[in-house]
Amino acid sequence: GASGALSSIRPQVRRALAQGQLLKASSMVDNALMTTDLGISAAQLAQLRSARLELFNRRVSRNAEPEKTSS
Fold it and tell me: Please, are residues 27 and 9 in contact by the beta-carbon 8 Å criterion?
């Protein structure tokens, strides 16, 4: 289950967090939970990450555009 999957990666996650590698730590936890508990395949997880990145990039670019003022 989740506790076993997370327990097995705890030292690596702690190390990544201590080194300021939040994305790496997050990725390790995602892999453990989604593939072990939810049975998501590596390909499906890659698709989820790609979609998340696409939405994130859209949000960033939308926020970077100058605000339009109405006349």
Answer: no
Check residue 67 and report its DSSP letter.
Answer: P
Output phi, psi for 16, to 5 deg.
-60, -45
The string of pLDDT tens digits covering residues 8-31 is 999 999 999 999 999 999 999 988
Contacts of 9 (CB under 8 A, 6+ apart): 28, 29, 32
Distance (Å, rounded) from C-alpha 69 to C-alpha 63?
A: 15
Tokens of 13: 């996650």
The whole-model pTM stands at 0.64
Q: Would you say 58 and 22 are in contact if contact means Cβ atoms under 8 Å apart?
A: no
